[in-house]
Amino acid sequence: MMKTSKVMIVDDHRVVIEGIKGVLHDMPEFEMVGDAVHGRQALKRIETLKPDIVIMDISMPNLNGLDTTLQLNKLFPNLKIIVYTMHSENEYVIGFFRAGVVGYVLKDSPLSELVLALKAVRQKGTYFSASTQVILQQYLKGLETGLKKDAFERLSLREREVLQLLAEGKSIKEIAAQLYVSPKTVETHKYNMMAKLDTNRLADLIKIAIRKKLITI
């Protein structure tokens, strides 16, 4: 008999968390072990809660869903991540696919589709909603002809963290304290990503962060 799968939700909307908990309450094959409202909180709690499956939102404060996923896959390679989001744009579907998620479900779908994704992942499968499958098929075909990388994709994980925190209005000193590095290191990351993104203005970085859904306005 297969053991119960432990599930954790990472979403900054309490109504979403409670809705998923309600649906899974009467499903004995799943155990809801906890939740987090942003990526940095999730990184701390996952080590303690040890879930088998994480349901991940994209747009969250402090650390967004994609960068959280990239970190989690390095720290916990056996962890299964299902994206649950309103964002159906190509760049997000492809970005999370490349990050190694095993599922992608849109929030405008019935919650029953998220349940289908959880059941598929529990059985060591994958689940991508119909519209995301089309995007991934086009992406995989495009690989054969060599797609040009978006400049944003050249940023390192730490550079994206600094970009999000700068866009949220944090100072260099505040970012350094939060990331446990020196202000000089933060400045270096800032100028490196400015070079990669071909800009020398903070306003341009903020615009990029908004466009990439690192922050919401």
Describe this structure in words.
The chain has 217 residues and is an alpha/beta fold. The protein has two domains: 5-143, 3-Layer(aba) Sandwich (Rossmann fold), CATH 3.40.50; 151-211, Arc Repressor Mutant, subunit A, CATH 1.10.10.10. The chain has helices at residues 14-24, 39-49, 65-75, 90-99, 111-122, 130-143, 157-167, 172-179, 183-196, 202-211, and strands at residues 5-10, 30-36, 53-56, 80-85, 103-106, 127-128. The protein has a six-stranded parallel sheet with strand order 2-1-3-4-5-6, sandwiched between helices. β1, α1 and β2 form a beta-alpha-beta unit. It is globular, with a radius of gyration of 18 Å. The N and C termini lie far apart (47 Å). The model has no long low-confidence stretch (mean pLDDT 89).
Strand order of the largest sheet: 2-1-3-4-5-6
State the shape: globular
- Rounded to the nearest angstrom, the distance between the terminal CA atoms is 47 Å
CATH structural fold name of the largest domain: Rossmann fold
Structural class: alpha/beta
- Give, in order, the helices and strands: EHEHEHEHEHEHHHHH
CATH class of the largest domain: Alpha Beta
